[in-house]
Design brief:
Elements (H helix, E strand, L loop, with lengths): L1 H21 L20 E9 L5 E2 L4 E17 L9 E9 L8 E3 L5 E10 L8 E9 L2 E9 L3 E11 L4 E9 L1 H5 L7 E3 L2 E4 L6 H10 L1 E4 L5
Parallel strand pairs: 1-10, 8-12
Antiparallel strand pairs: 1-5, 2-3, 3-4, 3-6, 3-7, 6-9, 7-8, 10-13, 11-12
Length: 226
């Protein structure tokens, strides 16, 4: 009898251990540490749009834009009641457009109710990586070349947005990044030819104008529903 009770107790213990090891842990809600999110739902959201869209895109003057990448050090949506709230701050993430990817929407599901007046951010590769990269093809003197634009300089902006988040509500701020003017300001005949690829980077004085044009071409997109 004692032997039978011992076998029963062992069987119950083994079943309990199996049940513990086969249960699945709950996944995290809201924004991930790198600024990504699942999209939709209540709270405050930041979406990214491009001009042109979609990418890859054919531009004027023999341009094809194949991919764009920005490395964000931080992005903050600033409320009038509490500037610098960690619940509306994302750090260290990238936005990328190419034939296979578009940027992930940032979700601040725990954003406090109130008025949000600004979006501030810093694009910065911290000299280890480029802060932003643009790649595509351009025609120079009748010949098509691949091109690369790579800049290690940081780019910081603070933009007015004026959005209200009601209790239990949802609002989306769309950040638009435009690229055409920055690319068309480059004199590609003077760009360095590196193994058949035309390259404009920190060694080329033209990168200063590219940086300025890109800074002026980032805006809050107020088209469509917010």
């Amino acid at each position: 009898m004692d032997r039978m009770q011992g076998l029963i107790r062992c069987g119950l213990l083994a079943g309990s251990l199996v049940a513990c090891h086969t249960s699945s842990p709950a996944g995290p809600d809201g924004a991930t540490p790198d600024g990504g999110g699942s999209g939709g739902g209540t709270g405050l959201h930041v979406a990214f749009t491009s001009d042109p869209t979609p990418i890859p895109a054919t531009l004027d003057n023999g341009f094809t834009l194949d991919s764009v990448l920005f490395r964000f050090d931080n992005l903050k949506v600033i409320g009038d009641a509490g500037p610098g709230d960690p619940r509306t701050t994302a750090t260290r993430f990238t936005t990328k457009w190419d034939s296979q990817s578009t940027p992930t929407e940032i979700d601040f599901g725990d954003a406090p109710t109130g008025v949000y007046s600004k979006v501030s951010f810093q694009i910065d590769g911290h000299l280890i990586d480029d802060s932003y990269e643009l790649q595509g093809h351009v025609t120079v003197a009748g010949t098509s070349y691949p091109f690369e634009v790579e800049d290690r300089s940081s780019l910081s902006l603070s933009l007015d947005c004026n959005r209200m988040l009601a209790a239990g509500g949802m609002n989306t701020i769309k950040l638009k990044l435009a690229f055409k003017d920055a690319l068309e300001t480059i004199n590609w005949s003077n760009a360095r030819n590196h193994d058949g690829t035309l390259t404009v980077d920190d060694t080329d004085p033209q990168i200063l104008m590219v940086h300025s044009k890109l800074t002026n071409a980032i805006s809050i997109d107020n088209s469509g529903p917010n």
